[in-house]
Automatic annotation (TrEMBL):
InterPro entries the record matches: UDP_glucos_trans
Name listed for the protein in its UniProt record: Glycosyltransferase
Keywords noted in UniProt: Transferase
Organism: Urochloa decumbens
GO MF entries: transferase activity
UniProt keyword annotation of Zinc present: no
């Protein structure tokens, strides 16, 4: 008999679906039944990516997949955060209400809790109206949430305007221990200092405080030692991370693309701590010039590399150039379209991680003691880079030139520096040990997760 039926609702993006799926596996392990709600567009991607592993059955007995429309047309760009955020805020609460009614009509157990993404907080009002209790889960760093909760205050103080644009170009620090970074790199900014998802995203952010007050608890995928300053400032945000899918069973985490099975076999053939792993998440786009510099930088470094290149990672690249590059590096590197990143980062052969610094990637790298070379793309990734380079000191950052390009020489130089820095390696190991202590036995994340489970069991 399940402890209770929980509806799990992530924001429709890979970086949100993954930790929500990891959390869902943990909840099932503790006796809950989970209905995992994706948008229809992402539901079909997840199902087709699961196909080789046996489809939805690969998730195990306790997780049921469901979907609701996102309010967008079929040909709308689902990487346009303005469109997605606006559609989610306006359409999804109503669709969620209908889904709950359909499940009840079908005789499914009554939904007792919604575990919802803070970014999906307009749906919290619907849940409360239906008598469903609400727990909020934040998929990025706690510091990112802390800054967003302070957005109205930052507007009041004249640091940013009511559209999220920077009014004063200066270094910003919310509190001691929280990274300092330029105001042009606020977590709602793209890489050029322009707010993403305008105007819907910043408008939603300014309502976070009000909407998240509908939740009885807020949990996040972090751990005490990683964000000491933030948890001091916001002791009510409970870190329950780093979350991960069980390594032995490799439970699926809701990938939108099928994993290339060659990765681990290829890594098995490489020497310990020799491989440069390169991955930029699910949203970053490179222009052909930057793509070529990155590729030639990996070639120049002369080390084994595993590079994840999504089908939509770059547009307009010469196919002949890419074919020739693949031929040149065939003995050294491997390029794949997607991989099981958790398996890759846990592999003994990986020496460093050239990363966009999304929070999932950051936590996965930290948990496996892998040094970083930071190459952020947008939003909270600049804040995560500041943690890695300035607070934890477990990595370095690339420096673009005057044209905004990271050159091949810069990449080669920084890869060599990261791999040759004993202090970075030592600190990466220290943070790995700290993160693993937190999720075991009487570790703080483990105890917080216990509190969370007890609340959901009420």
């Amino acid at each position: 008999m399940a402890k209770g039926h929980i509806l799990v609702l992530p924001f429709p993006a890979q970086g949100h679906v993954t930790p929500f799926m990891e959390l869902s596996h943990r909840l099932v392990d503790h006796g809950f039944e989970v209905t995992f709600v994706n948008t229809e567009a992402h539901h079909s991607l997840v199902l087709s990516a699961l196909q080789p592993a046996g489809g939805a059955a690969a998730l195990g007995d306790g997780i049921h997949l469901a979907s609701i429309p996102d309010g967008l047309d079929n040909d709308d760009d689902r990487k346009d955060l303005s469109k997605v955020t606006d559609a989610c805020s306006r359409h999804m609460p109503g669709h969620l209400e209908r889904l709950v009614a359909e499940m009840e009509a079908a005789g499914r157990p009554k939904v007792r809790w919604l575990v919802g993404d803070v970014v999906m907080s307009p749906c919290f009002e619907v849940a409360r109206k239906l008598g469903i209790r609400v727990a909020a889960f934040w998929a990025a760093s706690a510091a990112c949430l802390a800054i967003m909760l302070n957005a109205p205050k930052l507007v009041e103080e004249g640091l940013v305007n009511d559209k999220g644009w920077v009014e004063r170009d200066e270094t910003f620090q919310l509190a001691p221990g929280i990274p300092a970074f330029p105001t042009s790199r606020m977590p709602w900014m793209d890489g050029t200092g322009t707010p993403v998802g305008q105007p819907a995203m910043f408008e939603l952010i300014t309502r976070f405080m009000k909407l998240s007050s509908l939740a009885e608890v807020v949990v996040c995928n972090s751990f005490d030692e990683a964000e000491v300053g933030t948890f001091k400032l916001y002791p009510d945000i409970l870190p329950i991370g780093p979350l991960f899918a069980d390594r032995e069973l490799q439970k699926p985490v809701g990938h939108f693309l099928p994993e290339d099975e060659r990765c681990v076999k290829w890594l098995d053939a490489q020497p310990d701590r020799s491989v440069v792993y390169v991955a930029f998440g699910s949203m970053a786009i490179f222009d052909p010039r930057q793509f070529e510099e990155l590729a030639e930088g990996l070639e120049l470094a002369g080390r084994p590399f595993l590079w994840v290149v999504r089908p939509d990672f770059t547009a307009g690249l010469s196919k002949a150039w890419l074919a020739e590059f693949r031929q040149r590096v065939a003995g050294t590197g491997i390029i794949v379209s997607w991989c099981s990143q958790q398996q890759v980062l846990a592999h003994r052969a990986v020496a460093c991680f050239v990363s966009h610094c999304g929070w999932n990637s950051t936590m996965e790298g930290v948990r496996n003691g892998v040094p970083f070379l930071c190459w952020p793309y947008f939003c909270d990734q600049f804040l995560d880079q500041a943690y890695i380079t300035n607070v934890w000191r477990t990595g370095m950052a690339v420096s673009p030139n005057a044209d905004g390009i990271v050159t091949k020489e810069e990449l080669r130089s920084k890869v060599e520096q990261v791999l040759g820095d004993g202090e970075i390696k030592d600190r990466a190991r220290i943070f790995m040990d700290a993160s693993r202590r937190c999720i075991r036995g009487s570790g703080s994340s483990c105890e917080n997760f216990g509190k969370f489970v007890n609340l959901l069991s009420d």
